[in-house]
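Thread title: Can someone regenerate the structure for this chain?

I was given the following input by a collaborator and told the matching structure tokens would be attached. They weren't. Posting the sequence so someone can regenerate them.
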Amino acid sequence: MSDLLNTILDAHGGRARWEAAHRITARQFFGGALWEMKGHPGALNDVEVTVDLRREFVSQKPFFDAGHHTSFTADRIAVEDADGTVVEELLDPRASFAGHDLMTPWTRLQLAYFSGSAMWTYLAEPLSLTFPGVRTEEIGEWTEDGEKFRRLHVVFPDSIATLSTEQTLYVDSSGLIRRRDYSVEIAGNTPAAHYVSGHQEVSGLVIPTTRMIYSRDENGHKVPEPLVVSVHLEDVAVS
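Best answer:
Regenerated them for you:
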């Protein structure tokens, strides 16, 4: 494990605390231009999200219907009712995005898959960076707005469903992740610059509560308009 990854883990509460936790829940608010582009304006805004820290699983509720929730794993997305009965499901959901670009509309199940894979990536980090098959390597530094960042290149295995197999994390002088770069594979490899802020300590874990995601130009700089996605969390709890 790289020295930078150890620094990240320590800054976010320590590996031992993360390994002792089971799940994170929060009230989730989504904004930005993406949801209207994909045909679901306002979708998954002001819902409860639950992320499992021991395995790749996410549930969000309500999902359009007051009695429905999502069930996301790496190879399946489903909508279930309050009793756990499957309303609809899609196996191998990633394959359904073949040929998509940023403007291609999504079905509701595709929306649920995107959101599930994104929220697990965000909230299970940095513990997820220690999972089997995840490779990390420190690369060159980056300076933005006068601040210098160390950078960690991450490669996820096929067993983990995330927005991009390869991602780069930008780490500030205190060890907190402040930005991530990736190309959204299920949206035609659209390049993204993703800014992270609002870190809060919850039950010993340091968890960011605000994310602002923009397109990224060929020089690695964010394109300030439009704001593609915003994520804000309230009432964060760890169990």
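The longest strand covers residues 135-144.
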